[in-house]
Design goal:
The protein is mostly helical. It is built from 4 helices and 2 strands. Helix 1 packs antiparallel against helix 2 and helix 3 crosses helix 4. The two termini are about 60 Å apart. Component of the Mediator complex.
Length: about 150
């Protein structure tokens, strides 16, 4: 991912491509709506208007295809389409993915903290074991690990 001015320019260019696609799709949908009106109440006198709308439809599909070619490297997870099919907002998919990632991050952080605590306690236990001197009877006397500086 690019940061700084180059990243901002790339993001703006990508946004413009999406805006262009959105505009072409909106025009296409409106043309189809108008085509449906003409066809539903077709009169021989409306043949010229029908032909014009059909030509606009072909042109609109060509424009959409050009936009598609500019966005060929975009991939959309299949789960997003499932959200759409269920009538859910696709932005909820992103939100839920982020929430799952945050929960997993918290879980992993907890495991890391636990491992650090175990390692710390293990080191303290090993340190105190090294500094114990065995005595007769199976016990041990704690001997601090200090250098004799009384020379």
């Amino acid at each position: 991912m690019h940061c700084g001015p180059e990243g901002a320019r790339a993001a703006m260019a990508m946004a413009e491509k999406f805006d262009s696609l959105e505009e072409h799709l909106e025009k296409f949908v409106e043309n189809i709506r108008q085509l449906g009106i003409i066809v539903s109440d077709f009169q021989p006198s409306s043949q010229a208007g029908l032909n014009q709308k059909l030509n606009f439809m072909v042109t609109g599909l060509q424009d959409i295809d050009k936009c598609r070619q500019q966005l060929h490297d975009i991939s959309v997870p299949l789960e997003v389409f499932e959200y759409i099919d269920q009538g859910r907002n696709p932005q909820l998919y992103t939100k839920e993915c982020l929430e799952r990632a945050l929960a997993k991050n918290e879980q992993v952080k907890g495991k890391i903290d636990t491992m650090k605590l175990v390692a710390h306690k293990s080191c303290r236990k090993n340190y105190s074991t090294v500094n114990q001197v065995p005595v007769l009877g199976g016990g041990a006397i704690y001997m601090p690990n200090q250098m004799d500086t009384s020379f």
